[in-house]
UniProtKB/TrEMBL annotation:
NCBIfam families: rsmG_gidB. Its main location: cytoplasm. Its EC number is 2.1.1.170. It comes from Caulobacter segnis. Gene3D superfamilies: Vaccinia Virus protein VP39. It comes from the Bacteria. S-adenosyl-L-methionine binds at residues 82, 87, 135-136, 148. Keywords: Cytoplasm, Methyltransferase, rRNA processing, S-adenosyl-L-methionine, Transferase. GO terms for molecular function: methyltransferase activity. This is Ribosomal RNA small subunit methyltransferase G. It is an enzyme of class 2 (transferase). The gene is rsmG. HAMAP family: 16SrRNA_methyltr_G. One of its GO terms (biological process) is methylation.
Length: 216
């Protein structure tokens, strides 16, 4: 993957296209396909993802999530805040499975969504730990803290503060309003950040955050 390649249009991928683009193994593709099936099945009874996004799963969900690994290829311990349907955390866990010391903490405050995460983790034998808790209450030392569609940056940084203070780097998937969110967040927080292009959507950005502190 080339994280600095800004796409004019998002790719329209199927499993074969995703594999060609990312180099995922056959076993990883099989796990990702099984996860897609679980999302579709559970989405019938629970609001996990937008129903129309199942059709574009390989771009909208798989690629959107897995691109984070190219930005932190040596990171083994991750925390996905507001994990919800498991994006990006379950996708990351699928791709990290089999690497010694790998673990993804899926942090979700809604018990019914934790149940889905438990089912997915068991079905796919994933290296995850599921926390039915509010993100800011946990004291986890991890390499990377991430989130997608969790909260505006001001609030999200509050959720991520304990992880960043313990040495984690933040990699947050954001949409086209990210510049305004960062401007607002700087009223409450001081932090170093970089905006990185998204492989899955030319309007999207990945916000890399380090050295977080509250504005006094």
């Amino acid at each position: 993957m080339q994280p600095d390649a800004l796409l004019a249009e998002p790719p329209v991928l199927d499993a074969a296209g995703y594999q060609a683009l990312t180099g995922a193994s056959d076993a990883q593709i099989a796990d990702l396909a099984r996860y897609r099936d679980l999302l579709a099945e559970w989405n019938e009874v629970m609001n996990l993802v937008g129903p129309l996004t199942i059709a574009t799963y390989w771009t909208r969900h798989a690629l959107d999530s897995s691109q984070l690994l190219a930005l932190a290829p040596d990171a083994l311990t991750w925390a996905d805040l507001g994990a919800g349907a498991g994006l990006p955390g379950v996708v990351l866990a699928i791709l990290l499975k089999g690497r010694e010391g790998a673990k993804v903490h899926l942090v979700e405050s809604m018990a019914k969504r934790c149940r889905f995460l438990e089912v997915a983790a068991q079905a796919l034998d994933l290296p995850v730990e599921i926390h039915n808790a509010r993100a800011e209450t946990l004291k986890l030392k991890i390499d990377i803290v991430t989130a997608r569609a969790c909260a505006p940056m001001t609030k999200l940084l509050g959720f991520a503060e304990p992880y960043l203070h313990r040495g984690a780097t933040g990699l947050f998937l954001k949409g086209q309003d990210v510049a305004a969110e960062l401007t607002e967040a700087r009223k409450a927080w001081s932090f170093a950040s970089d905006l990185l292009p998204s492989q899955s959507d030319p309007r999207g950005r990945i916000v890399q955050v380090k050295r977080l502190s509250r504005v006094r």
